[in-house]
Amino acid sequence: xxxxxxxxxxxxxxxxxxxxxxxxxxFTLDYYAIGWFRQAPGKEREALSCISSSDGSxxxxxxxxxxxxxxRDYAKNTVYLQMNSLKPEDTAVYYCAADGSPLxxxxxxxxxxxxxxxxxxSWGQGTQVTVSS
Length: 133
Known about the structure:
The protein is mainly β. It is built from 1 helix and 11 strands.
């Protein structure tokens, strides 16, 4: 069974840090683009970052560039999102998702995701991040 499970969310003060984890089971991430997304109440889902498993290239939305870092542990089949300098406006439910295609390079999938016109096929259940003093 294909499954993505996020963890690591919680309550943090402004300026603090959190590391989110996205653990995959039932499939290997080797052939997928893995993205992190978030959705705040009353707002549309936002693509934050993506990593291409084929070449390790990473992509970020302008809103998080320089503050968030995506990485992957191949042995653990897990993708991480290190979030630093958190702001109250980062409060949202954070999701990881995976997508792949034999016809589209993974780097292209990542770019399409950050541009907002690629729907990822497999999603985790989400983890809440609250930034508040």
